[in-house]
Amino acid sequence: MKKIKYRSKFRLFLGRRMFITLMILAQLVLLLTLLLRGSQLHWLGLVLTALSVATALHLITRPDKYAFKILWTFLILLFPLFGGVMYWTFHFQTASTGFRKTLQKIEDAQHAEYRTLCAPEEPNLANGQDGRLLSYLRNTAAFPAYEHTESRYFEDGKEMLSSMLADMRRAEKFIFLEYFIIEEGIMWDAILKVLRERVAAGVDVRVIYDDLGCLLTLPVGYQKTLRSYGIQCEIFNRFHPLLTTLQNNRDHRKIAVIDGKIAYTGGINLADEYINEKLRFGHWRDSAVRMQGAAAESFTAMFLQTWHLLSRTREPLRDLIADRDSITPSDGWVQPFTDSPMDKIHVGERIYAHAITRAQKSLYITTPYLMVGEEILSAIKYCAQSGVDVRVFVPGIPDKKVVFFTTRSYYRELLSAGVKIYEYTPGFVHSKIVVSDDDFCMIGSTNMDFRSLYLNYECGACFYGTKMVADIKTDILNLQNDCREITEADCKTNFLVEFLQNICRMFAPIM
Fold first, then answer.
1. In the prediction, which pLDDT does 23 show?
2. pLDDT above 70: residue 272
3. For helices 42-61 and 83-91, what crossing angle results, to 10°?
């Protein structure tokens, strides 16, 4: 059986992935060949160079992040003959424009309907700064804050899986799953068994998975297998071997909703390494949160936005929003959020910035990758320099060596500002958590890197004054016992290493 499974994985690797790689390389070779041959004509070389200069000037005026503008301007000036053409080949895509407009229409229609169904509550928060974030998220991400929500934190994938399976077995109306990675194995087999049982009982089961995230974890055409079981399935942003920036925008969200009353989110995908049944990078340290009550409404709405985009269907939101249970005790406020690269509103970055700047006593961050822009980096340094206890937890065993190499380039300046950095020696930290003082935290799918902050579709939840904040803070302090604290002596390298790290930081926006 193992040989068959490995042979299947090998065929999958040599099949679709190799085909996509070869097609993209063929397009690059063709484009470069045409440009290089064309550049032998003096007049064409002048036109291409003029296009590159005009493109660089265009980039300067665009309201994009400086890191992206600097990277592209560097590449254009480095390769003036084809830099401009390369930029427009990637960015001038009618598919991206159509995708953006369709998504915007769906979001606008849903938000209008949601406002008629549920009047937003007006929280009275102890920390006045949190009120600004709450209003910002309500106005931009269009999801309110909720009382009457019970929150439970999971510091382990197996613990979350056990709870999720129990909730799914009790589902009466629907189960919605939206994940970046689904992989055949122990974890997914257990979930799939319950899903098939609930479908047989008349429960509406829908699954969304990202095509690139599952490129090597699911067979080609797996959506047909799920549909044969009675499970509705859609694939997000099918990966085609075409040169387009749309391929960069992946559905990195982790959402499970049961009957509109219970929702799960966090960093845990539906694959065996997330429950440590498969060890690839040592022990996998991850987290998730379960929300029961009113806050599940927003995760139902998030899922339906994507579902309607992919399935090209429309159904009334009121049919899938559960009646609010006022019996559920209030434990602070919970505000789910979603972040889309299509609207150019960087919700995840704003939440991290808020958590950093509001901290008065302590700021704890766990992230698998630490590659941020100058704004976030300066905010973290300022926070530590003002006397706040700032601790950042990252993996000790990397899953991507170049990314880990780049992450370490930030150590020196953070340490010099007073930030404490810890590497998780048993393995890989995949949690995406920020805890500010004792009364605010965010947990979700957003990494502290350019891809999550600016390119991917992400989600999560902010917790204001809930008891769960203390549980997360305690867990992070326990995590520290398995970490190695980084010192300035650990960061001493030679000139060549520092030079290479600085080069990698320039290319961080596309990692």
1. 60
2. yes
3. 60
